[in-house]
Amino acid sequence: MLYFIKFVYSFVLPPGIIIVFLALLSLWMLWKKLRGTAAFLITITLMLYLVSTPLVADPLMRTLENRYPQPSELSGDVLVVLGGGAVTGTPDVDGVGNMGGSAANRLLTAVRLHRESGLPILFSGGKVYADSGNEGDIARRQLIGLGVAPEDILIENRSLNTAQNAEYSVELMKEHDLSRAVLVTAGFQMARAVTEFKHAGMEVQPYPTAYESSSSAAAAWYPGKLAPSADAIGKVSTVLKEYLGSLAAAF
User: Fold this and answer.
1) Which run of H or of E encompasses 156?
2) What confidence tier does 216 reach under pLDDT thresholds 50, 70, 90?
3) How far apart are CA 235 and CA 240, in angstroms?
4) Could you give the CA distance from residue 107 to residue 101 in angstroms, rounded to a whole number?
5) Do the beta carbons of residue 242 and residue 84 sit within 8 Å?
6) Pairing verdict, β 86-92 and 95-99
7) What does the entry give for GO biological process (predicted)?
8) Which residue in 57, 8, 18 sits closest to 41, CA to CA?
9) Phi and psi dihedrals of 20, rounded to 5?
């Protein structure tokens, strides 16, 4: 019963309610014998519905996240962590400002790898928007709060995109005589990030984290896979952005 209620709710909240509205509008067009317009609306409705379901979003996300497995051993002299969004003006345990969900997962992975390996952490990310926090500055405070010694932290807080992440990180590494980066970022971003670091003149060891789709999801099926959600649309948008970004980075 609980899952049935969740399924029904998915068509009451956006984007489900929009899909229902478009479907009803399509039926009305058919009733009015406006077959051409109805066919167009039905196509749009079906496309919107498909990209808003986990049945489509999760396999698309896995095409990016499955490209690089997590290595069993680290081969580098620094952990380079790429930012992924921060919020300013929000309370934190020891200050103000917080990392976004994916960025927080990347930071947590880096701290755990630092404790295991003793490698320093280089965090890369700046203030992308006027109302977002400076990722590098927030990351420094949170890293120290998680027990990382200040002397083991390098911060690059100017970059606004992945290409600048790579460019400025490589510059900072050279300033500190570091040459072998273990790249820690979200699995969906890793392919593009590796390409950008190659453009910046450095080969990296990929260490993907912050996964959005379960690797075992391919074998699991339940009615919720057909329920539309904003999260699924977000995943599809992320995948398309990464493929377009990779295409641009290739030239």
Assistant:
1) strand 153-156
2) low
3) 9
4) 10
5) no
6) antiparallel
7) Gram-negative-bacterium-type cell wall biogenesis; peptidoglycan metabolic process
8) 18
9) -60, -45
C-alpha–C-alpha distance, residues 210 and 165, integer Å: 18
Tens of pLDDT, residue by residue over 152-196, are 999 999 999 999 999 999 999 999 999 999 999 999 999 999 999
Residue type, 186: A
Q: Does domain 52-211+222-251 have CATH number 2.40.70.10?
A: no
**Tokens describing residue 133:** 């926090």
Token digits of residue 110: 């880096």
3-state secondary structure of 65: helix
User: In the chain, what are the domain boundaries?
Assistant: 52-211+222-251
| Residue where the block lists tokens 């952490």 | 121
> Which residue has tokens 């755990």?
112
**Bridge partners, residue 205, by sequence:** 182
CA quadruple 93, 136, 146, 192: dihedral sign: positive
Torsion of CA 58, 64, 68, 70, to 10 degrees: -40
> pLDDT tier at 9 (50, 70, 90 boundaries)?
confident
Q: Enter the tokens of residue 244.
A: 């377009």
pTM above 0.85, yes or no: yes
Place of tokens 């899909």: 19
Residues in the chain: 251
d(CA 98, CA 141): 10
Among residues 140, 141, 196, which one has the least CA distance to residue 181?
196
